[in-house]
């Protein structure tokens, strides 16, 4: 059976707040651990009222306290928003608290609109240009493989798995050149999935961290008792995506039965484009769609995303998904 992991945005529901979202993330991580998921990642997003994972390393400290064995990490840290030294200290601290369990996934995108640059007091366009050098510096701060004038404490010597994230060929090429595992954000940007995976595998150069390419692909996965129930649950996720792409993000809304049928053709097309990396339905439907996706991509691991308005429904979705794939195995 292909390994499964979880990507969480720490969604904030309408009528609820940040404290509830963080508590629900901890419960979701506990379910993921109990049912056999390999890792639980939190994504960095900023200035979005429906997402509470902006202070990613702090959230991971909370998730680590709620769990004991599952790997935890960032999916990802948007490195142009930060400097490598501070990230080395933060994740070195996480490794000291939860040794042998920390993943550090790195992305190049800022994770919010242009106004974020002003809030961070940074030129994010220029910072993105230095992304490859910053990755090398961050790796050296953790491993000591370069002679740097300062040591990160904590950080140096931490047992952290570094990952490269991406939704284009850039991340695939950089991951291959550095010999890092690679995770592709196909759940929201599937267009370049096949080309990115092919590029990564063809150009991969072995490193001390990884001797052969290892690729993870993301899917939107929501599993219910029936196809109809799952589609209704998924309508909250769909509404959030449409609102985000329409420039009107908000908190996670309640489900709307037959939501897609209410949309104009342009919005329907936007959601349909994501169907290649979407498995929403009964256990049988989810098993079949994940199976086809895994076979087509040759992914070594699948990371599942997708929010439901009822947190219990999302926990149940993780359980049903894992049970469905174990049956197939």
Give a brief rundown of this model.
With 329 residues, the chain is an alpha/beta fold. Helices cover 45% and strands 16% of the residues.
Written account of the structure:
With 329 residues, the chain is of the alpha/beta class. It has helices spanning 18-35, 56-66, 84-97, 115-120, 124-129, 131-143, 169-178, 193-203, 227-245, 265-272, 283-297, 311-328, and strands at residues 4-8, 39-42, 71-78, 102-107, 160-166, 182-184, 215-223, 278-281, 301-305. It has an 8-stranded parallel β-barrel with strand order 1-2-3-4-5-6-7-9, surrounded by 9 helices. The longest helix has 19 residues, at 227-245. The radius of gyration is 19 Å and the shape is globular. The model has no long low-confidence stretch (mean pLDDT 95).
Number of separate helices: 12
Q: Name the helicity range.
A: 40-55%
CATH level-1 class = Alpha Beta
What is the CA-atom radius of gyration, in angstroms? Answer: 19 Å
CATH third-tier fold name:
TIM Barrel
Total count of strands: 9
Cα distance spanning the termini = 5 Å
């Amino acid at each position: 059976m292909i390994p499964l992991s979880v990507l969480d945005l720490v969604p904030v529901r309408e009528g609820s707040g940040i404290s509830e979202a963080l508590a629900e993330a901890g419960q979701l991580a506990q379910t993921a651990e109990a049912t056999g998921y390999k890792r639980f990642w939190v994504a960095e997003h900023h200035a979005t009222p429906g997402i509470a994972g902006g202070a990613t390393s702090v959230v991971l400290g909370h998730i680590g306290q709620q769990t004991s064995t599952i790997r935890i990490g960032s999916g990802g840290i948007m490195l142009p928003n930060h400097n490598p030294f501070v990230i080395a200290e933060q994740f070195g601290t996480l490794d000291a608290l939860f040794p042998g369990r920390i993943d550090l996934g790195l992305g190049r995108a800022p994770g919010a609109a242009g106004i974020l640059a002003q809030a961070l007091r940074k030129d994010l366009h220029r910072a993105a240009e230095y992304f490859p050098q910053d990755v090398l510096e961050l790796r050296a701060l953790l491993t000591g493989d370069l002679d740097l004038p300062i040591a990160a404490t904590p950080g140096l010597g931490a047992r952290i798995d570094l990952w490269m994230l991406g939704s284009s060929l850039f991340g695939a090429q950089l991951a291959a050149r550095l010999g890092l595992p690679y995770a592709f954000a196909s759940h929201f940007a599937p267009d370049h999935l096949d080309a990115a995976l092919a590029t990564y595998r063809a150009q991969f150069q072995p490193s001390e961290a990884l001797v052969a390419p290892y690729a993870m692909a993301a899917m939107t996965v929501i599993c219910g008792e029936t196809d109809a129930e799952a589609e209704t649950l998924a309508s909250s996720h769909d509404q959030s995506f449409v609102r985000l792409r329409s420039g009107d993000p908000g908190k996670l809304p309640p489900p709307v039965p037959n939501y897609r049928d209410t949309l104009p053709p342009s919005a329907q097309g936007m959601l349909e484009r994501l169907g290649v990396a979407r498995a929403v339905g009964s256990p049988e439907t989810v098993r079949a769609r994940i199976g086809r996706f895994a076979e087509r991509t040759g992914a070594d691991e699948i990371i599942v995303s997708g929010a439901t308005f009822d947190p219990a429904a999302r926990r149940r979705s993780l359980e049903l998904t894992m049970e469905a794939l174990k049956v197939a195995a």
